[in-house]
Design brief:
Mean pLDDT: 84
Number of helices: 13
Strand content: 5-15%
Distance between the termini: 31 Å
Low-confidence stretches: 7-47, 113-120
Largest sheet: 8 strands, mixed
Length: about 350
């Protein structure tokens, strides 16, 4: 679904998908400009001290080291990373960020007794990447229905993928999949015919999260590849299914936004395939399979964690609209998941 998602960044959450996907994929519609600009220009706070005080000598040492790293060639960077037994894959900017993060972490650990307590991190990150009904040329008013609901669970302590969830979904508004949709996603008509409707699948997803004690015993956050999975696909699907938008999905980590800010790359370089390539990773599985896309998004998240990035909630749904969450906001985990309620 990456092509269909690419330009969906409007502040109007109920903007029809068909109105967006008709735009050329290399252009951004005028209504998208403000929020997309916010994504690209958001400040990088990954090197900021918790109390905003840079007077401690350790930050001067870090600044000097960063200057030296900035002057290193790609070959020098790769050799230094190899000497430190760190990952040597990726483009030059990625390797510089990796080396800076490693040095910063080492220096801060050495002066940990003098520093403020470290931030609270999520115990788990839950990656979600929906697949939805689509047409090659979506007719006016076409509404996309979720047909695959995958989740990939990351343990932030062990830095491993520890669990998977996948359910196909029976569409009700347009029950017959287009040939374009089948070829794009690999989801066949029989798969959706044999599946449950969305409210039942959402209940299964909630039960899966509850069984793993997420939101109760363990702190967790949802992570997506862009804003559209939650602000568009899930929002529209809940309206079509006559159920309320689930509370646990109202805040999430938009990895594209974090990736761009952390590695200092422009928004066009934050597509899934490009992020993998810049990190020296290859896509594993079938593109546009929701579960395989989720796995690969999880691999990017793991690489970013290893490179020193703090994965933080940076977007939310509020009063039916998509909003950015400032980096200064307190870190909050997603609430305990509950079964959806009817709108009736």
């Amino acid at each position: 679904m990456d092509e269909l998602k690419e330009n969906i960044c409007s502040e109007n959450v109920w903007l029809k998908m068909s109105d967006v996907v008709r735009h050329d994929k290399d252009k951004v519609c005028e209504s998208c400009i403000r929020i997309c600009a916010d994504e690209d220009s958001a400040p990088d706070t990954s090197s900021s001290p918790p109390n905003g005080d840079y007077s401690h000598p350790v930050y001067k040492e870090i600044a000097l080291a960063n200057g030296q790293i900035n002057r290193m060639s790609k070959e020098e960077l790769r050799k230094k990373l190899s000497d430190l037994k760190l990952d040597t894959r990726g483009v030059k900017d990625v390797m510089k960020k990796r080396l800076k993060s490693h040095y910063k972490k080492q220096k801060l650990m050495q002066s940990a007794a003098e520093e403020s307590p470290t931030d609270t991190y999520y115990d788990y990150i839950c990656v979600v990447d929906f697949e939805a009904t689509c047409e090659k040329d979506n007719p006016p008013g076409f509404k996309h229905e979720i047909i695959e609901f995958p989740m990939v669970l990351i343990n932030t302590e062990t830095l491993e993928i520890v669990d998977l969830f996948q359910e196909y979904v029976k569409p009700e508004l347009n029950p017959e999949l287009s040939e374009f949709c089948v070829n794009l996603t690999g989801i066949t008509q029989k798969m959706v015919d044999d599946a449950d409707p969305f409210p039942v699948v959402l209940e299964k997803a909630v039960a899966w999260l509850q069984e793993r004690e997420l939101g109760t015993k363990y702190k967790y956050a949802i992570l997506t590849d862009g804003a559209w999975d939650m602000s568009k696909f899930l929002n529209i699907q809940c309206r079509l299914s006559r159920i309320k938008y689930p509370q646990f999905a109202k805040k999430w980590i938009n990895i594209r936004k974090l990736y761009g800010n952390f590695y200092k790359v422009p928004r066009p370089q934050t597509k899934l395939s490009t992020m993998l390539d810049k990190l020296g990773l290859k896509y594993e599985g079938r593109p546009h399979s929701g579960l395989d896309d989720s796995r690969n998004i999880a691999r990017i998240a793991l690489r970013m964690l290893k490179d020193g990035c703090q994965l933080r909630v940076n977007e939310r749904m509020h009063a039916g609209q998509l909003q950015s969450v400032p980096s200064s906001a307190p870190i909050e985990g997603a609430p305990p998941p509950h079964n959806p309620r009817s709108r009736d």
